[in-house]
Amino acid sequence: MFHDVEFQSEGATLRGRHYRNTETPKATIVMTHGTSATITMAIDHYAQAIFEAGFDVLLYDHRNFGHSGGEPRQEINPWVQLRGYRDAVAFLRASHQVGPVALWGDSYSGGLALVAGALIDEVAAIIAQIPVCGATWPEGAAKDGALDSLRTIFESGDVRGGPDDVAGPMPVVSLDQLNAPSLLTPPQAVRWFLEYGGRHGTGWENRVTRVVPKTPVPCSPLVTAPHLNMPVLMMIGRNDEMVHCNPDLQDAVFEMIPGPKEKLVIDGGHFGLLWEDSPSFSKAVTAQIEFLGWVL
């Protein structure tokens, strides 16, 4: 069904799976996971379903996570993960004959997919699943020339960040917020991460460091949304528990997208569609396959 692949990004080797039907060029969906997760924590079920529907898939772990290389381990940096999308698409186009390329992201990567789509040439479509669009409106998102500034940072900016830009290391989730405060606090997050992360072979670790460098413009879909001319499917979790999935900002992003677009609200909060045996998962993946069949 798939073979293991690896490619270079930001001085590290990123690893994942290439689900490929035939040698004939086909539409390929580039997929990666959300905050601290790995490719075998639910999204491999999305990849398998999309593949079985007739599309090729490149599914990979972010730098510093899972089976991918990179140091420091368990460090999230949005700019580094954004460049991972770029390098995944470049790898596909350089090493295989492919048809149209679409981006797929979940949660934190859902927001990043909405950014990457404006920065990577010839992205055919985007699926942003329960995307992080921010807790509050980010400073600098609406300034003149914001996209040009964002593109410059993306292509060549120093995004290492300084000591004041670092949060952690800390647990991803914790049952004891008094003595071991964590990055994610909703009980739904605790349940999901401990269930999926605890499965054999996931490579998940319950620790994370977050680096958000201070930049002239934020790495935010509120900057790029007005420049997304390709078809976009946004899947929103009804009553999403995660503070950075502010529905007002998700709506603002959606309204600013000028290209063909669809928004689907899924029951189950942030994590409902990440349980592969749930009705929310079935509804979400069915809608995604129908969308991809329509646009690719």
What does this protein structure show overall?
The protein is of the alpha/beta class and 296 residues long. It has one domain (2-295): Rossmann fold (3-Layer(aba) Sandwich). Helices cover 30% and strands 21% of the residues. It has 8 helices and 11 strands. The protein has helices spanning 43-52, 78-95, 108-116, 146-156, 187-197, 221-224, 247-256, 279-295; strands spanning 2-9, 12-19, 28-32, 56-60, 75-76, 101-106, 123-129, 166-170, 208-211, 232-237, 261-266. The chain has an 8-stranded mixed sheet, with helices on both faces. The radius of gyration is 18 Å and the shape is globular. The mean pLDDT is 96.
Give the tags.
single chain; alpha/beta; 3-stranded mixed beta sheet; 11 strands; 8-stranded mixed beta sheet
Describe the largest sheet: 8 strands, mixed
Instruction: Note the overall shape.
Output: globular
Count of discrete domains: 1
- Tally of contiguous helical segments: 8
Any idea what the radius of gyration is?
Answer: 18 Å
CATH superfamily: Alpha/Beta hydrolase fold, catalytic domain
pLDDT < 50 runs, ≥5 residues: none
- Indicate the percent of residues in helices: 25-40%
Strand order of the largest sheet: 1-2-4-3-6-7-10-11
Task: Provide mean pLDDT, rounded.
Answer: 96
* Beta strands, count: 11
What structural class do the secondary elements suggest?
Answer: alpha/beta
Distance between the termini: 21 Å
CATH class: Alpha Beta
According to CATH, the fold-level topology is Rossmann fold
Which percent band covers the strand fraction?
15-25%
